[in-house]
Design a protein that fits this description.
The chain is of the alpha+beta class. It is 28% helix and 24% strand. Strands 2-1-3-4-5 form a five-stranded mixed sheet. A hairpin with a 4-residue loop joins strand 4 and strand 5.
């Protein structure tokens, strides 16, 4: 699967975002090592701490289906530059060792980073 195809899937999931408070729609798609793709969108809650980001939605869907190894994750939003995962999502991405993160926006800007570039000092199981 190409990066552009993964971004396109993320963009499709963005349309399902539930954002009655911020109106900031985000979509994500995670590619597993087995070649399957799981998508997600952000889902807001009036108690903001209970909101779930698109990236975590996609990853958690994959994990709930038994996936544990990942190849890439794409995230897209209507932002000035490529959409970057928040800190909580970065930590989940690190826990599942997703090696390649593709950040995009609706204008076609794309930036790809490795996990080490995205979160160079990630907390991991070796820190426990």
């Amino acid at each position: 699967m190409t990066d552009n195809e993964l971004i396109e899937i993320a963009q499709q999931y963005r349309e399902n975002a539930y954002t009655p408070y911020s109106h900031f729609k985000v979509g994500a798609a995670v590619l597993t090592a087995s070649g399957k793709v799981y998508g997600g969108c952000n889902i807001e809650n009036s108690s903001y701490g209970l909101t779930n980001c698109a990236e975590r939605t996609a990853i958690f869907k994959a994990v709930s289906e038994g996936e544990r190894e990942f190849a890439a994750l794409a995230v897209i939003a209507d932002t000035d530059g490529p959409c970057s995962p928040c800190g909580a999502c970065r930590q989940v991405i690190a826990d599942f060792r997703i090696p390649r993160i593709i950040m995009a926006n609706l204008k076609g800007d794309v930036k790809t980073m490795t996990l080490g570039e995205l979160l160079p000092f990630a907390f991991s199981d070796s820190d426990m």
